[in-house]
Design goal:
about 270 residues, alpha/beta, 8 strands, 8-stranded parallel β-barrel
């Protein structure tokens, strides 16, 4: 890929604005669009999203589960989607939330981050709940392939608090240390974090991270662009707010809603 993930991400956000479009083609949404819940409906959905938003969004985040449920036929649609987004200049974050022992994580990383893989993307989501050290293989692969990782720290779903509140700061410390060890990665390190926009506060000095912050929860989960600006003011240059259901509800207004969220976030985070 040449440039580091952080360099490509920074350039994409500067050019197109701070927005990640979540691509979550669950059965109810396919039906709401008048599409069959089938690989053909899934493919039509993806084509529509790419046609409407690929030139106005910096980042897209397909949710792998909604493709995996169709086995090889769904994975084939995901491969085409990633290729189409790449050709359109959109950075891709595949939401797979993988986490396992180092050797297994290295294999996951080969599947998603190796430039020669059919499922190659710019970054993936991972979890550290087998210990942060278990991500070492994925971190090495990300660095070697000029790709990135987003480590779950404190997510936007309500169930997260009982576990994640206990360990979020330690995860953030580990991410900060990882990026500091590879300080040549500019302007952002290859390891980012996931922090929900629905949180009441952060309480951690996020400027230590030197990595991007993927921020779900905007829109249908209740957080607003103003919440993003309030919570992440110290690292507004590194924030990647993610919106999915709020822009995907109506295919006829998809482009309009993506543009509206993008412009409001850009104004608040400038």
């Amino acid at each position: 890929m040449g440039d580091s993930f952080g360099t490509r991400l920074r350039a994409g956000l500067d050019k197109r604005g701070p927005l990640c479009v979540g691509i979550d083609p669950h059965p109810q949404l396919l039906h709401a669009w008048g599409l069959d819940d089938s690989p053909a409906g899934l493919e039509r959905f993806c084509h529509t999203v790419v046609d409407a938003a690929a030139d106005v969004a910096a980042v897209a985040k397909p949710q792998s589960a909604f493709f995996e449920r169709w086995g090889s036929r769904g994975i084939a649609v995901l491969e085409r989607l990633l290729s189409d987004l790449r050709e359109a200049g959109v950075l891709t974050v595949l939401d797979v939330k993988r986490g396992d022992i180092p050797s297994t994580m290295a294999a996951y990383a080969e599947a998603y981050l190796d430039e020669g893989s059919p499922l190659a993307c710019d970054a993936i989501t991972v979890h550290p709940y087998l210990g942060f050290g278990s991500l070492s293989g994925a971190i090495a692969s990300a660095v070697g392939n000029d790709a990135g990782l987003f480590v779950l720290a404190r997510t936007s779903n309500p169930e997260a608090a009982e576990l994640q509140d206990l360990v979020a700061d330690r995860i953030l410390d580990s991410v900060a240390a990882t990026n500091a060890a590879g300080a040549s990665h500019e302007p952002l390190g290859p390891v980012g974090v996931v922090l929900g926009a629905t949180l009441p506060s952060i309480g951690y000095p996020l400027e230590r991270l030197h990595g991007p912050v993927l921020v779900p929860g905007v829109g249908a989960q209740g957080a607003s662009p103003a919440d993003v600006a309030r919570l992440f003011a110290p690292v507004r240059h590194a924030v990647v707010p993610s919106v999915s259901r709020a822009v995907l509800t109506d295919p006829a207004r998809l482009r309009e809603r993506v543009t509206t969220y993008r412009d409001e976030l850009a104004a608040l985070l400038s």
